[in-house]
Amino acid sequence: MKKLATALLTSAIALGTFSSAQAGEIAVIVKTVNSTFWQNVQKGADAAMEDVSEHTMTFQGPASESAIADQVNMVENAVNRGVAGIVLAPSDPDALVPAVKKAWENRIPVVIIDSMLAEGAEQYYQSFLSTDNKKAGELAAQALIEKVGTEGKIAIMSYVAGAGSEIGRVGGFTDYIKANSKLEIVGPYYSQSQMATALNQTTDVLAANSDLKGMFGANEPTAIGMGRALKQSGKAGQVVAFGFDGNQDLQEFVKDGTLAGIAVQGSFQMGELGIDTVTKLINKEKVEKFVDTGVVIVTKDNIDKPEAKNVLY
């Protein structure tokens, strides 16, 4: 609690040092533009910008989530352009810290979304908007245990090792499985957020583990590749699989039984609240240091209900 209070105080002090609000560019920089998850974040940001007449918004991201150096350059370029504020989904918790520090030194407010930066970087940004990834991973693990029981073998299909969201999400999943079952875990395997890589990895895991009872695909492209591999191998519905995120492909996998369920984040909310929060900071208004944007476990039973429709995209 003392640490949080210190972070909040630091944030308040930093906020007070920003220059007077003036018309300018809000730079939204995400992990990649080639994913419907991040495209849905953009829809949320666009919606919020309808109420922001005094600023313009740019939206960009690298070609892939693993192109970390490209994302660092985008943040540095935004700082060099003298933008009014930055909303950033960092692809790497360490590599983005110097660029965010540079923004802070130039009195540019930064709102972090989706994935946290390394410990110690809290002073350089003013708010963090994210799914509680540890909690989300625990919910997925709980749902899987309810379907497969507490004994047997399961696999974890992950994405980018060391990404802030991956640490929390896969860590939460793994810890819950170990604490509440005797399930043996195979993996994790890292797809680098490439669907084709996840498909090939899942195909190999299924071939090497004929007794596999369950799987967890920890982000959108990984879960899509996992689902396609399950269908191609004839294991769809036989191996209990849960994915993460909620685009059209994953929704169809839930409807046809390929996936038992998907844990879906409020991606639209991340974009919308990201713009709202950075606008408040530009206007020297106080903001919360952390905002949980939520997660919903979507299954065939609730996919057509409001709780699911509010987060699916």
Fraction in beta strands: 15-25%
Number of domains: 2
- The computed structural class is alpha/beta
Share of helix among residues? Answer: 40-55%
Strand order of the largest sheet: 2-1-3-4-5-11
Q: Overall mean pLDDT score? A: 92
Number of strands: 12
Main sheet overview: 6 strands, parallel
- Cα gyration radius (Å): 20 Å
State the low-pLDDT regions, or none: 1-21
Task: Report, as a whole number of angstroms, the end-to-end distance.
Answer: 36 Å
User: What is the overall number of helices?
Assistant: 11
Shape: elongated
InterPro entries: Peripla_BP_I (IPR028082), SBP_2_dom (IPR025997)
Protein name: LacI family transcriptional regulator
Keywords: Signal
Pfam family, one: Peripla_BP_4
What can you tell me about this protein's structure?
- With 313 residues, this protein is α/β, with parallel strands linked by helices.
- The chain folds into two domains: 2-131 and 267-293, Rossmann fold, CATH 3.40.50; 133-265, Rossmann fold (3-Layer(aba) Sandwich).
- It is 45% helix and 19% strand.
- It contains eleven helices and twelve strands.
- It has helices at residues 2-16, 36-49, 68-81, 97-105, 133-148, 164-180, 195-208, 220-232, 248-255, 267-282, 306-309; strands at 24-29, 55-60, 85-88, 110-113, 127-130, 153-158, 184-190, 212-217, 240-244, 261-265, 290-292, 295-298.
- Strands 2-1-3-4-5-11 form a six-stranded parallel sheet, sandwiched between helices. Strands 7-6-8-9-10-12 form a six-stranded mixed sheet, sandwiched between helices.
- The longest helix is centred in the middle third of the chain and has 17 residues, at 164-180.
- The radius of gyration is 20 Å and the shape is elongated.
- The two termini are 36 Å apart.
- The model is unreliable at 1-21 (pLDDT under 50).
